[in-house]
Amino acid sequence: MIKDKVTATSASVERKAMAQYLSPLAQGIKPSGIRRFFDLVSTRKDVITLGVGEPDFVTPWHVREAAVYSLETGKTQYTSNAGMPELRDAIARYLSGSFNVDYDPANEVLVTVGGSEAIDLALRALITPGDEILIPEPCYISYSPITSLSGGVPVGIETFAKDNFKLKAEQLKAAITPRSKVLILCYPSNPTGGIMTYEDWLPIAKIVEENDLIVISDEIYAELTYGTKHVSFAAVPGMKERTILVSGFSKAFAMTGWRMGYACGHSDLIGAMLKIHQYTVMCAPIMGQYAALEALSEHGLEEKDRMIESYNQRRRLVVKGFRDIGLECHEPEGAFYAFPSIQSTGLTSEQFAQRLLEEAGVAAVPGDVFGLGGEGHLRCSYATSVAQLTEALDRIGSFVHKLKQG
Length: 406
Known about the structure:
Strand content: 5-15%
Number of strands: 12
Order of helices and strands: HHHEHHEHEHEHEHEEEHHHEHEEEH
Distance between the termini: 71 Å
Largest sheet: 7 strands, mixed
Structural class: alpha/beta
Strand order of the largest sheet: 2-8-7-6-5-3-4
Radius of gyration: 22 Å
Number of helices: 14
C-alpha cells in the first residue's frame, strides 16, 4: 500500500510541467545562439567550421608535460583558494612586463576556472538587483545572461563597423543612467576583432570616473594583436583601482580545455570574488595550475609568439579573401575573428549562415547572436589551417556569386 502511494505520488509529479520548479531567472535565459547553430553542424559531413573560438593548435608539449609531471609526483591536492602562490607571482610578473600594470600577487590576483568564471564572480560580487550593466555590442554572448542571472539589467551599447567597432565616448555617455554601475569591456573584441588604443581609452576613462563606474575588462585576447600592442584599460591613469582585469590561458596559449583563467584588481574587489569562489569551486585544478605556470615560462612565451604570427598570416589571407569575394570586411586588429558584412546579399545573418551551411558546407556564426550591431555580419574564426581557410573562401565565393546571379 505504501509503495502504491509512493508510485502514485511520483507519477503525479511527472505529469506536472517540471519547468514550474525552475527559477524565473533560469527560465528566462536563452540557449547559446552559437551552440544552437553548431548542433546543426554536428549532423553534417564535409563541413568546414569557422565558428568555434578555439585555437587549432594543440597545447605545447612542454606545458602538457608539466601537468603530467605534477600527477606523477603526486600533486593532486587542493591549492590555496586564490591559486598557487608561484602561479599568482608569475601572472603578476607577466602583466607587469607585458602590459605595464602592477598587482600584488598576495591579495590582488585570483586564479579561476577559466576567464568565464572570473566574469561570473565579478558580476556576482558587484551587482545589487536592479543595477544596470553597460555592455558594448556586438560582444561575447555570455555577458548579458550572466548579468541577468546575477539580478542585474544588461544595457547594450551598439558599436559600428565605420568606427572599427570601437566604443565611442558619446555612445557610452548616452547609455548611462542613475542605475548604471558596471561597464564591461572586451578588447580585443570577440566577435569583431576590434581594438582600443591608449587615445581611444582616454575619453572612456573620463566618463567612467565622472560617473563612478566599476569596469570589468575582459582581456582574454590581449596577446593577439597585429601591428599595435594591446593597451590594458587598467593601465590608463586612474583606472586600475576601479577595474577588474580578467584574462586567462585559453586563447593565446592554446589551453581552452584546461579552463585556466584569472582576475586582478583592488584587494577589496578580489576579496569579495574569492569568497564566492571558495564556496563554489574551492580552487582551480592543481594540474592545470602547473600547466599555466609552465605556459608563462620563457619557452611558453616563445610558443605563444609563434602561434600569434601564424594567426596574423591567416588574418591577412581571410580579410583579403572576403574583400575579393565582394564582401565588405573591416580590418580586425586583434583576436582571431573576421566579421564581414553580408548585407549586400540581401539576406539576414541567420539566413546567410543557414544557407551557407546547407549549400556550401561552411559553418560560421550569424552576427545577430552577438547583440546590437551584429545583424548583417558573420563571425568567422581564422584559428584553423590555411588549407581549410582557402577551401572555405572558395566555397563562400561560389555561394555569394550564385546568390548575386539570382
